[in-house]
Write a sequence for this structure.
């Protein structure tokens, strides 16, 4: 029984060291991510990914409800920078495949 506990502790410490190294070499650059109209399958995958993310990253990802869409977006984005479909003046420009 003690061997299993020691192995678990060694594994936990190893993961913690790897995480520290990863964050040293690959600093977080995400300021904030606003997720709008997330499809059902995305939410299923998100539930798998969410536990792996560190707390700082989790706080930067915001899922916006449809009824609070414009007000939530305007906390971080000027209204004159929003596309028409989100209550702003700009036309929506589709992303074309290159």
């Amino acid at each position: 029984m003690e061997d299993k506990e020691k192995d678990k502790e060694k594994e936990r410490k190893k993961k913690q060291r790897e995480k520290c190294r990863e964050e040293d070499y690959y600093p977080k650059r995400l300021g904030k991510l606003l997720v709008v109209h997330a499809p059902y399958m995305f939410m299923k995958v998100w539930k798998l990914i969410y536990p792996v993310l560190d707390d700082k990253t989790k706080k930067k990802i915001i899922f916006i409800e449809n009824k609070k869409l414009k007000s939530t977006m305007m906390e971080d984005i000027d209204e004159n920078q929003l596309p028409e479909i989100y209550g702003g003046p700009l036309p929506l420009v589709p992303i074309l495949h290159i």
Q: What stands out?
A: Helices lie at 2-25, 40-49, 55-60, 69-73.
